[in-house]
Amino acid sequence: MKALSLRIDDRDVEAEEGMTILEAAKRSGVEIPTLCYHEELESNGVCRICSVEIEKKGRSRIVAACCYPAEDGLKVRTRSPRIDSMRKTILELAAASAGEDVAGRMRELAGEYKADLSRFRSKVHSDPTKCILCGLCLRRCIEATWDSAIGSVGRGVRRRIALYPEKAAICSVCNHCYVVCPTGRISSIGAEPPFPPIEDVLAGRE
């Protein structure tokens, strides 16, 4: 496999072709925050908290480190006033639907980036879900059951993770997804608030 050399935060980093910026950073001991990433699952870059600034051929731009491939000669900056401000806003926007009562990795990052998790809450006229729609539980569910006991339904602020009632029995004994939940909504005894039945979401009752 082809060896690559890139520079992350003024540190020379060796990587291999096919690795992402996030993987190269982790291997070299550089921490980049994540919410929707898990090393055992395919990356989708949905949360964007891992955004970094790259410089290539004299031009810079923001990319998701969990999806962007490591490239020879690439320069990467993982922290800056611009990046920190972006991450703070991402956390505040995610909390608009999730609410302030979150735990786990999201609570840790909110403290680190001094995010006000109540900032946009008044703009959303629905009960807090304690969910940021990172998709980790959905991907973990497929891996665990070779099927989906839960699914994503709706759009925008009405989007929900919902339960397929006919598979509720499997979901109640699996617990495979709680270890990847970044907000603390899913614990070893289930989700709180519980995943609503998909029929209720489609009918507008949730």
The low-confidence parts are none
> What's the helix-strand series?
EEHEEEHHHEEHEEH
**How large a portion of the residues is in β-strands, by DSSP E?**
15-25%
Shape: globular
Number of beta strands: 9
Number of helices: 6
Mean pLDDT: 92
Distance between the termini: 50 Å
Radius of gyration: 19 Å
Write the layout of secondary structure elements.
Elements: E1 3-8, E2 11-16, H1 21-27, E3 51-56, E4 59-64, E5 75-77, H2 81-98, H3 104-112, H4 136-145, E6 150-153, E7 160-163, H5 168-174, E8 186-187, E9 190-191, H6 198-202
Parallel strand pairs: 1-5
Antiparallel strand pairs: 1-2, 3-4, 3-5, 6-7, 8-9
Name some characteristics of this structure.
alpha+beta; 206 residues; two-stranded antiparallel sheet; 27% helix; 6 helices
